[in-house]
Write a structure and sequence with these properties.
Keywords: ATP-binding, Glycolysis, Kinase, Nucleotide-binding, Transferase. Its EC number is 2.7.1.-. With about 500 residues, the protein is of the alpha/beta class. It has a domain of about 180 residues: Hexokinase, domain 1, CATH 3.40.367.20. It has 15 helices and 15 strands. It has a 6-stranded mixed beta sheet. The protein has a 5-stranded mixed beta sheet with strand order 6-5-4-7-10, with helices on both faces. A two-stranded antiparallel sheet has the order 1-2. β8 and β9 form a beta hairpin. α2 packs parallel to α12. About 45% of the residues are buried.
Amino acid sequence: MGSGQRSSASAIATRQHTYHHHNHCFSREGSLADVPKDLLGEIKKLEQHLSIDTKKLKEITNHFVAELEKGLTVEGGSIPMNPTWVMEYPDGYETGTYLALDMGGTNLRVCEITLTDTKSEFDIIQSKYRMPEELKTGESEELWDYIADCLQQFLDTHHGDLAPGTMIPLGFTFSYPATQNYIDEGTLQRWTKGFDIDGVEGHNIVPMLESALKAKDVPIRVSAVINDTTGTLIASAYTDPTVKIGCIFGTGCNAAYMENCGSIPKLAHLNLPADCPMAINCEWGAFDNEHVILPRTPYDIIIDKDSPRPGQQAFEKMIAGLYLGEIFRLIMVDLHDNKDIHIFEGQDIKKLRKAYTLDASFLSAIEDDPFENLQETADLFSDKLGIATTRPELELIRRAAELIGTRAARLSACGVAAICKKKNFQPCHVGADGSVFNKYPHFKARGAQALREILDWPVKKNAKEEDPVEILAAEDGSGVGAALIAALTLKRVQAGNVAGILHPENFK
């Protein structure tokens, strides 16, 4: 757990960090004293644009609660609130061997998970395959062929000895908004995370993958399509029963939680027992697509306008890893081109002009720079962008990175707080995964601070005291969670309880 956490001991040794609470952000004492007035003016403007106070956080959260409710109704809203047909928490005694395939924004991961006889324990073997960029905008067949090849390769490496006729059950983590009428189907609503492949939106992805597997004689059957947030929820609850929400803060952002079927008007026609739980994949990246509550900056508006899907994923575009570096890049280009101060004066900034050339790890590195003179940041700009920076410019760069990172963490907390308010989940644990959560400096602390403000918690009596809602590094949702969901599905099929679970054609 938490493998992404960095030790900051070395950083603290190099530079006595003097953090103080400034704009709810961890900032450096006295560091801006040497910055010229005009540059300070631009920093102040950025602070106004990107800071979100407690009152605004509460307004956003209340609107969020109403939008979550709306997504569960027949009419629906901009947050899809997709039922997943995962209808129970694991009890920790699930067993068996399962394959899990995780198709994320950057990598394709194949795992084999063995749920052991010991409570809440599992063994895992895994391989990672890079998702080639050109597949994201290529032909649909190329994508499924590539995935089938990776699965074949995995089986060749780990299972040279399969008995003829064996079909291996696969939990497919498909981390894109999908409608599910059964657990073993997923109809793509729309691509996100930079994917834009024709002929997939509006279609069930399972037959596409299965026909590629069949063509290559790969002995695998898709037994469950899951979202990574649902996987995170189930995998985290497997080892910690107080977990009530699963979240992803990575390339994209999203959450899942258990709702009572009686509170899901759009499933009323199925007459499911009112107190029966159903995991809901919120797809909350689409929160506020109408632009009524989120305080967007001119930079956010450009990102949306230039994206493959303008007007969609409004919330995600302000907080997800895919966009943080781009917000920063747009600010830097704007300050160079359009302001009286002209940062990077007289230099060729052509590398900086390339869209999406900086990712969240670039901002992470800036915020992680432990040196008083920000030497690591200077080296980063010089190596990656060919730009020489002055000391005042470095202070501006650092402050901009802090503001963008802080805003992302604080807005993220609104979603968590909204589910907690809607379901009265206090106290509870939240299992969170994703590169931004695990690796971005101070993201956890800033998020926790925002939750404290939104939910009006009293000041802690001591540092060891737990907050009523704690966001913790999750168990591996897209691997272990997928395996557990495949196991839970199998258990229900064996018990003859298949209503709404399996696609009728697949239920033999």
